[in-house]
Design goal:
This protein is an all-alpha fold. The chain has 20 helices and two strands. It has a domain of 127 residues. Helix content is 72%, strand content 1%. It has a two-stranded antiparallel sheet.
Amino acid sequence: MNNHKEKIRYVGIDSLRGWLIILVMLGHLVLGSVDENIIRYSIYAFHMPLFIGLTGYLINADSLRNNTIFATLMRYWWRVLLPFAFAYFFFTAILAIHAFEEGRISAKLLLSFVVTPYYHLWFIPTLVLWVLAFATLLKLRVPSFYALLFFLSLSLIWASLPSAEQWPLLAALLSKKVIYFFSFFLFGAWLRTAGSKKLRTLFSQFKILPMVVITACAGLYLINIGADKSLFKAGVWLILNLALITLLIDSATSKPSATSKPLAAAKPSVKSSIITAIGRNSLPIYLWHVVPMFILKGFDIHQSYPLVYYFVASISMVLIVFAVLWLEGGKEGRNKLIDRCLFGKV
């Protein structure tokens, strides 16, 4: 008899996260405005809400409820904020040097770098704010469903009304992703509660229904491409993402694999192994995949030679991904400093 307690891991979660990171990279690579480029418009319609919902689902509510806010903050300092800090100083230093060389450097500009980190870097500090806000809601015993409804309402307002038509204070708040994306974080966390059981059961038993809803909403959203906002378009966007988050999380968690029984499952393909590894190392890939585009755009290559930009940036991003996977070095890692500063491993 094997008395060893079986450790369960849903590899589908890592696979889903891997595909989402690939979409993030593709969305950042493609040139053109989000509202005018069908590829970017399609990706941006769902990839961040889904990624944020998945992040909320993975949050341990009991740990947040039982630990102090300071203990939670320190845990996230070592796991995500320290790797973020290295990326932040890298990108910010280059931006500051360019500004100095061009005579644009000022206290106001430096302050803007602090308040609004470069391009993609907004997500990491915002994630920590979401975690701390969620922990506060738990400690105050605010019912998760009512908090979810409140923030979903804010998301609907942001997506349906131009800023000029909103109350000035509300418009200022909703201009920040930390407010209107928090609803998807809360929705992911709510899917782990008993209150979501009926919804998840419905999605599990009648997969054709959510697929029809998702397909219909995606089609309606795509034919309304553009920056114009409306209540109809906002509702379609919200339903699309809530249904997609529920369906994909349910699918990703439906087939657990026992790490103590590696031979119980069929050997994964090379492609699926790579996708899973990308998902497992999503943090460093997310932080550093934009370096080639950052450099190329700094020399205006994307405007002068777009084909060169796509070729060099694509190859460079693939190399960065495989460099990260190589540096991971298995369970023991390759170097403690790299593990801590790049991967957030404690």
